[in-house]
Amino acid sequence: MPRYRGLAVAAVAVMTTLVAPASAAQAADPTDKAAVLAAWTQPAAASYTAWNNARLNQAAWASYGFDWTTDYCTTSPDQPSGFDFRLACRRHDFGYRNYDAAGLFPANKTRLDETLYADLSRRCDTYNAIVRPACDGLAWTYYQAARQLGRPKVSPAELERAERMKNDALRRAAAEPGASRR
């Protein structure tokens, strides 16, 4: 991801001026839409937080005309094996839809897909260490599908494999007293 370092630095600079919810409405200037979009679609956790804060306060950003619609993980399950991927897929949709509307999608697709993977990985990190490998495997599969197909499309066989992996890990953990849970 070194090729995005300059963009990430610029995005962080933009985020520092646009993240605060109170100042967001005051700072709303649709002429900086591209900079705001770039700030909200980086792989960094701070970018995710800024986007999510804006998502929760969309009225403050209405003048930008962002497309907040989502179909979450498209044709793949939003919560495969109980792992909740909805917000990661929602942000991915946000990036795809808004860069497409701006005519800038091809130049940003790779980063948007890498951002999806970063978001999914951070989500997997919130799960118990026993089942985390199954979540990580699904996150990688969703990322690869988005990268190759333009949207997450996971086969039933891949979902069944992750479910078996999760269940096997839970069975092993239940059989081992004192097994690590975090």
Structure notes:
The protein is mainly α and 182 residues long. It folds into 2 domains: 1-66, no CATH class; 72-96 and 108-182, Phospholipase A2 domain (Phospholipase A2). Helices cover 63% and strands 0% of the residues. It contains 8 helices and no strands. Helix 5 (86-101) packs antiparallel against helix 6. The chain is elongated.
Q: In this structure, how is the largest beta sheet organized?
A: none
What structural class do the secondary elements suggest? mainly alpha
CATH superfamily of the largest domain: Phospholipase A2 domain
Oligomeric state of the chains present here: single chain
> What's the rounded overall pLDDT mean?
86
H and E order: HHHHHHHH
Give the strand content: under 5%
